[in-house]
User: What shape does this take?
Amino acid sequence: MKLAFELNGKPVSLDIEARETLGETLRARCRLTGVKISCEAQVCGACTVLVNGLPVSACTYLAYEARDKRVTTIEGLAGESGALHPLQQAFLDNFAFQCGFCTPGMILAAKALLDENPHPTHEEILTYMDGNLCRCTGYLAIVKSIQQVAAASAK
Amino acid sequence: MAQPSEFQVVNHSVPRADGVAKVTGSAVYTSDMVMDHMAWAKVLRSPYAHARIVSIDAREAARQPGVIGVLCGDDLQDIRPYYGHAVKDHPLLAIGKVRFLGEPVVAVIAEDESSAQEALEHISVEYEELKPLLDVDAALAPNAAAIHERDDYVQGNFRGFDDQSVAIQGNVCQSVHVEWGDVDQAFSTAAHIVEGEFYFPMVYAYAMEPYVAIADYDAKGKLTVHTSAQHPFMVRQDLADVFELPLNSVRVIVPYVGGGYGSKSYTKIEPLVAACSRKIGRPVKLQLSVEEAFLTTRGDDARVRIRTAADADGRIVAKQATIHLNTGAYAENSPMVARKAANRIVGPYLIPNVRIDCIAVYTNTVPASSYRGLGAAQITFPSESQMDELAEKVGLRPVQFRLQNIARRRESINPQARPIDADVASDVCQAAEILRIDAPLPEGHGRSVCCSASDAGAHPVTLAMVQVYGDGSVSVLSGSTEIGQGSHTVLAQIAAEEFGVLFENVRVIGSDTGITLFERSTGASRTTTLMGRAVLEACREAIAQCKVMAAELWGMPVEDLEEERGGIRRGNQRLSWAEVLEKYFDMQGASIVGRAYLRRAGDLKEIPVFWEIGCVGLEIALDKETGKISLDTLVTIGDVGLAIHPAMTESQDIGAATMGAGVGLFEELIYDGQQLMNGSMLEYRIPRFSDMARNIHLRLAQNRDGVGPYGAKGGGEGSVNPVGACLANALYQIAGVRIRRLPLTPERVWKALQDARRR
Assistant: This one.
């Protein structure tokens, strides 16, 4: 079947199979391998992408559901000139990852949080981010990164 | 916490070398890779824990659309199908019988992943069920059948410790005995004795990238494997043995790795994927799901019977323990886990009389192997729980009792090992102070500081090369895998420090067994200590070569050269090392190689190469109505000699402590009969954002007392170990209940509270 949607700001049109997940489409057809697949059960958040600005788990979200919508992956987050998004920079500054497998999903979930709530409390960060797992960092540096970006946008 | 440093690059938290790639999604992991003409494999797994394979009919599967080939145990007769670095007991597909539910039985290779998956349904396997032996007691029962009927398994190449015998007897995979002093005499005269049985659960490491490998076995007999593995050289050895290939015909390449924590130590699916590629003459990829990863490797669960004795003054006089590890169906690295558990249960204490037996037992469950801490988490829970029990009997506060018994620097806790190379007492004091261990406690709160000492570093054989270019850039060729711990950053820092070049001018290449020199493994917290030191020595060897060249250029003896950081000087004339090379070769592009070969010799002769100290303080809050424990304050002390990269070192400490808290509070693999009941991330609960401690203090002890570069030594595992005991001890302080089994789930705690109330 045909699928048309906006991917990282550009229109795309693809032939897909009806049963295909958005994660499969993005990774195999679009070669956007920043979309990471881990639990395949909507638990870990590694596959988080933004659809119309809201976080979804690409591992279980059918590609067809994204028709005519705006899809943002980690590859679409940096500016045209390659300038990093403030969250990407904050993750670097705070060493908010080790193996990096959760990082694309983590950054996109954090972006959705800050888009919705630019100045979250500590508690709000924990609650919003609770569906994104990281096995390496113990989360502290990720929280700091989100707080850093929130604080900068307050200025 | 930043202190002025005498160093330019090391001991500074420079940007991660892999940072931009990881935040932009451009970092390539094995699971992201595809090759030209690549096919996909899928695996049919055993539905029984223990059964004979009567017949396999895969003809229908072979006829399915897209299917290229089918492989089962009977097809492996022209290779050596059993692998294992410790014991070659593990067939790459089941041969004749299956030994755990989930064991690979048939592999289907197809043009795409879903065709391979669908074809699995067209395979029929007839089994004759055998009685499954699902726990240690069943496997050790007098009439228990042997899970491994053969007694002619071959010793692997890297068993890893001195007592080399393959010790398979019945279902005993390995037994280890540690003894000194006269334990029976000491117990018979001791003033205080505590005794108990503890259980540390089966755990799953959950590396977020499940096992994945791509093998290309070409027509000329050259095998190239990309894999998400921690120890590429171990994998190479197993592949060379299985396919009877020379080492130079097996190339193992490790791209970025999505987590390891020990679970990607040693060989996993690589021989099977290579056999699939050999079968069809094309590259083949096998990507396991997380649910399949649950069925591939877990941590050994441990039942520990332990007793400890003290004299009237509160000095520990004896410790005796029997540790049973449930090792699952294949040995993997459990012989080493057994050895380490036996060594590490002593802790950082001076104990004159010790007798430890550790028995790793085959059962019909998922094979157990390395898990962060390598045996130490399993045994620190009982040993440090018992330290608190004994302190109470003696009448001392737990920290005071520990301090009174902790070995001081250069004292020996094990007569056959390197003396302690750390100030553990100072670590414990610091943790207690930050935790305010003696301050009044809020209602429902408890505090504990626990510690551990691990004989870390594994066997020191570590080889490294650096390539120095005439333009001032440097490449480090390292067989240490970047698994997220930051080795590619740390090794570049060391080279930049030594050559006096910018950190950004150093690139680390590896791991690739076709390019990089041998490194035994990436684990046991060894990389900074051993590979870091090898890189440092390789840099200095290259600099020595540069000096000879400079001496020739300037027509003077080498001894008369005035060396300064980054180059040499004669009067006001200065040449950087790069300029020396350019002038010497009088041509752009030429480069030289410095190398270092570390082995078990010199100051690395004594094992362990360093003691990895774990020291954690916890304050917990208990909800007595529900039994739920939450973390109020976490303190970690990273006793690392010198932190080459302080921020990444602290990040490893909190990450390790968080893994420890996972096992301490909710992680446990649960079997119901043959079936693993919670083998998916829907049911296996790991720590989340909301589980974080409310207050976190990460501290480093930097006494430059390690054998690594600039006095560094390893970290990253230590903080896992003490957490379980911290939780149990703090709970005891709150409620007076002593729970000797992890995890401390709300249900388990609530029941213990009810039982205590009834008493």
